[in-house]
């Protein structure tokens, strides 16, 4: 059993994680929030206390931290007696925070794959370039490291594991579909860190097709689906984190990620990109100032956290899975619907942050209880999916299933002995 949670970051995902951790501090123990800008952490603490979100009296504290400094992170882990660390900040921090956790022998969680600020869309599989290189270190020291515990990556990986474990004898394809059918009312904005957001779309779009990596350009391939609740939407083939572990672990020949974009977003993105304003490489102005264009664009766009009060509508994220069971061709849709206004009422955040932050806290709770304290490095699909999806349903992210039996709520009781079963995966 592990106690005391250190959350690194103070943006939208960290905010949701902090609120949800406070609501479950009977399981998680002391809650500490750390960021380079301590005033942001203090504001989170004040907001949580104002909402009286703490389930029981306990420590809820803010700290200043440069998480790129491994020794400083280790010192804060030691000071706070934290046994679980969640990097809910930038993906640029993953490897530094992971190193600190390995050295200190404490559990590590993140919500997205590590990125090098100077590189975009590296050679697949992306986990092999960074996190998986520390896999043996985690195994040797018995350190639990849960990678990609947001929604996508994260919950969608658990959906795939559930399908492999309980619904299919053979899976032929997994199409992960992410649609934000909400509106924030701004001329143009990104729903999370603009720097990370744009980096996903300016390089090569990698997908896993016919059991090999396939390269495309952004907005080159699209599809249209009639989805539950949100209706008909066009989505575009996009590179994404979860493809890089699912392709290694589940033995499925076709795994693709599709994201919805409106024409306005595509037009603005295209102009910014063609002008070179989304480049991560520094340029020198006529005045001799060195600037990174992407960071300038980030600075002038609305802070994603500021969108939450005006957001309305819903999000859809799910896995459309096709394959065979008992000799019959089978199709399964496993999905979640979240509401922006409901997310704001509960955590002062919009649903994009909500869907990423809640699963990370579910993972922390499962580590704390021992269900997911696996003493090794694991992607979500390598862990028992039923306890995770069951817990998510109870704390704010219910799962629905649509198949030949109809559309219904996920019921963990259906799975009996498979509830604690580790998914059928193969190591990367």
Question: Concise description?
Answer:
The chain is an alpha/beta fold.
Describe the fold and architecture:
34% of the residues lie in helices and 25% in strands. It contains 15 helices and 19 strands. The chain has helices spanning 12-23, 25-28, 38-50, 70-80, 94-104, 126-129, 135-141, 155-166, 194-199, 243-249, 263-274, 293-300, 340-347, 351-369, 385-395, and strands spanning 5-8, 31-35, 60-64, 84-87, 107-110, 145-147, 170-180, 205-209, 212-216, 222-227, 231-238, 254-260, 283-284, 290-291, 314-325, 328-339, 377-379, 400-403, 406-409. The strands form 4 sheets. It has an 8-stranded mixed sheet with strand order 10-11-12-7-15-16-18-19. The chain has a 7-stranded parallel sheet with strand order 3-2-1-4-5-6-17, with helices on both faces. It is globular, with a radius of gyration of 20 Å. The two termini are 29 Å apart.
Point out poorly predicted stretches.
none
Overall pLDDT, averaged? 94
Number of helices: 15
Provide the gyration radius in Å.
20 Å
Q: Identify the strand order in the major beta sheet.
A: 10-11-12-7-15-16-18-19
Name the overall outline: globular
- The strand count comes to 19
Q: Tell me what portion of residues adopts beta-strand conformation.
A: 15-25%
Classification by helices and strands: alpha/beta
> Termini, distance in Å?
29 Å
Helical content band: 25-40%
Instruction: Note the main sheet.
Output: 8 strands, mixed
Keywords:
eight-stranded mixed β-sheet; seven-stranded parallel β-sheet
Write the layout of secondary structure elements.
Blueprint: E1 5-8, H1 12-23, H2 25-28, E2 31-35, H3 38-50, E3 60-64, H4 70-80, E4 84-87, H5 94-104, E5 107-110, H6 126-129, H7 135-141, E6 145-147, H8 155-166, E7 170-180, H9 194-199, E8 205-209, E9 212-216, E10 222-227, E11 231-238, H10 243-249, E12 254-260, H11 263-274, E13 283-284, E14 290-291, H12 293-300, E15 314-325, E16 328-339, H13 340-347, H14 351-369, E17 377-379, H15 385-395, E18 400-403, E19 406-409
Parallel strand pairs: 1-2, 1-4, 2-3, 4-5, 5-6, 6-17, 7-12
Antiparallel strand pairs: 7-15, 8-9, 10-11, 11-12, 13-14, 15-16, 16-18, 18-19
Helix pairs in contact: 1-14, 4-5, 8-15, 14-15
């Amino acid at each position: 059993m592990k106690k005391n949670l250190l959350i690194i970051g103070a943006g939208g995902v960290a905010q949701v994680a902090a609120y949800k951790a406070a609501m479950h501090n009977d399981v998680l123990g002391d809650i500490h929030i750390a960021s380079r800008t301590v005033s942001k952490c203090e504001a989170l603490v004040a907001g949580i206390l104002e909402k009286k979100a703490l389930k029981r009296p306990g420590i809820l504290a803010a700290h200043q931290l440069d998480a790129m400094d491994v020794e400083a992170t280790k010192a804060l882990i030691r000071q706070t007696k934290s046994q679980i660390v969640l990097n809910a900040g930038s993906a640029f921090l993953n490897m530094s925070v992971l190193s600190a956790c390995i050295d200190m022998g404490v559990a590590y969680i993140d919500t997205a794959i590590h990125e090098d600020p100077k590189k975009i869309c590296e050679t697949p599989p992306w986990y092999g370039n960074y996190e998986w290189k520390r896999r043996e270190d985690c195994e040797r020291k018995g350190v639990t490291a849960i990678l990609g515990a947001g929604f996508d990556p994260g919950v969608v990986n658990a959906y795939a594991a559930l399908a492999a474990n309980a619904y299919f004898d053979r899976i032929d394809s997994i199409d992960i579909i992410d649609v934000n059918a909400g509106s924030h009312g701004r001329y143009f904005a990104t729903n999370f860190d603009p720097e990370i957001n744009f980096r996903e779309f300016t390089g090569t779009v990698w997908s896993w097709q016919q059991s090999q990596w396939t390269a495309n350009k952004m907005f080159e391939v699209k599809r249209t689906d009639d989805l539950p609740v949100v209706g008909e939407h066009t989505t575009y083939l996009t590179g994404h984190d979860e493809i890089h572990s699912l392709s290694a672990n589940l033995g499925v020949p076709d795994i693709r990620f599709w994201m919805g974009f409106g024409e306005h977003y595509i037009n603005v993105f295209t102009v910014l990109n063609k002008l070179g304003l989304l480049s991560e490489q520094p340029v020198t102005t006529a005045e001799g100032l060195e600037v990174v264009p992407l960071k300038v664009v980030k600075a002038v766009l609305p802070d994603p956290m500021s969108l939450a009060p005006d957001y309305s509508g819903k999000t859809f994220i799910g896995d459309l899975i096709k394959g065979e069971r008992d000799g019959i061709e089978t199709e399964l849709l496993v999905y979640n619907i979240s509401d922006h206004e409901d997310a704001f009422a509960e955590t002062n955040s919009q649903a994009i942050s909500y869907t990423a932050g809640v699963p990370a806290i579910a993972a922390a709770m499962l580590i704390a209880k021992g269900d997911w304290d696996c003493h090794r490095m694991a992607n979500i699909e390598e862990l028992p999916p039923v306890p995770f999806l069951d817990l998510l349903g109870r704390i704010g992210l219910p799962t629905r299933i649509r198949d030949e039996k109809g559309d219904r709520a996920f019921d963990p009781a259906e799975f009996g002995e498979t509830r604690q079963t580790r998914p059928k995966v193969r190591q990367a």
